[in-house]
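Session log. Operator J.P. requested a structure for one protein chain; no other inputs attached. Running the standard single-chain path with C-alpha cell output.
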Amino acid sequence: MKSNLVLVGLMASAAFFTLSGYELIRSSATVLFKAAYGAENLPVVMALMPVVMFAGVWGYGALLTRFGPRLTLRITTIAAACLMLLCYSALQLELLWVTAGLFLLKEFYVVLLIEQYWSYINSRLDQDTAKRFNGPITGLAGLGSVVGGVMVAQLAIPLGTENLVLLAAIALIPAALLSNTAYRWFGEPTDHHDEPPGETFSEGVGWHFVKRNPRLIALLAIVLSSQILAAVLDFKFQGMLSGAFNGDVDAETAFQGEFWSYLNAVAVAAQFILTPILLTAVALRWVHLLMPVVHLSLILWAIIEPSLWSVGAAFFAFKVFDYSVFRGAKELIYLPLGFQERYRAKEFIDVFGYRTSKGGSSIIIAALQKSGVAMSQYYLWIALLMASLWLALVFPLTRKRGDE
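Structure written below.
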C-alpha cells in the first residue's frame, strides 16, 4: 500500500506540472493564433491535426520499440520542451506562422505525456486499487491545471501572452524529473520485453492491438465522437469570445485563464469526490451512460437558448467530466490488458484518436466554410449528434459483466 502511494504520488505530481504548463500554453497558443489568423480559421489549423498525430504516434511507437517506456517518456518530454522554446524564439522574431505550429504542438504534447503516465500507472495498480486511486490521481494532476489557469489569469496582462509559452516549457523540467524517478524506483513493466520480434507498421502505431479487441474498438469510437463534440463546442465558444473581446488579445487570454481555472477547480473537486464514489459504488455501465446523458441535456439547452452562457456551460460540463469521471472510468478498461494494449493501443486511442477526431471533423468544417457554408450555425447540432452516438456506444463498451 505504501509503495502504491509513493508511485501514485510521483506520477500524479509529474502530471501536475505537465498540466500546469499546458494551461499556460493552451490559452496563449489559441489566442495568438486567433489574433494572427482569426477565429474562423481554427478549423483550418485543426485540419492538420491528423497528420501531426499520425506522425507523432508512429514516432512514439518507434521510440518505444527501440528504447522502452522509461527512455521514451524522457525523450518525448525533453523534445516537447525544446519545441516550445523554438516557438517562443520565433514569436520574438514576429514570425506569425509559428502560431499555427504552437497551436498544433499544444494539442499533441500534453496527451502524449499524460497517457504515458497513465500507461505506467495501469501497469502497476490492480483493479481494486485503481478504483480507489484513479480519482485522487486525476485530482492531484488536476490541481496543476487550476494553478496554471490562475497563473494565466494573473500573468497574461503584466507579462504578455507570448511569455507564457516560455513558462510552459520550464514546467516540463520537474515533470521529467518526477516521472523518471518513478521509473527508477519502481522499474519498467515486467512484460515490457514480451513484444513480438517482427513488429509490423500497424503494431508500431497501435492499431493492430485495437482492432483485435471489440471493447477497444468501442472505446475508440467513443473517443472519436466525444472529441468531435468537444471540437465543435470549442469552435462555437471561441467564436463568441472573439466577438465579445473584439481583438483585445491580453484581456481575452486573461479571461480564458480565469475560465479554465474555475473549470479545473470544479474538475478537481469531482476527481476527489465524485469519481471515487461513482467508480466504487456504481456499475461501470451506468457511470459511462451518465456522461452523454448530461451532455445531451446541456447541448439541447444551448440549441434552444444560444448564448455565451449556455454554450459555455455545455463546454464547461464536457471538460469537467472529461477530466474526472470519464478519465477514471476509461482507465479501468485498459487495466486488465497486456503491455501492448496498455502502451501501444492506449496511445493510439488516447493520443491519435483524441486529437485526430478533432482534425478530421475540422477538415470537413474548413472545406464547407471555404465553400460559403456558415458552419457556426450547425456546431451545436453536430454536438447533439455526437452525444447521441456516444450514448449508443456505451452498450458495446460495457457488454462484459466482469467490468461492471
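Operator note: The mean pLDDT is 85.
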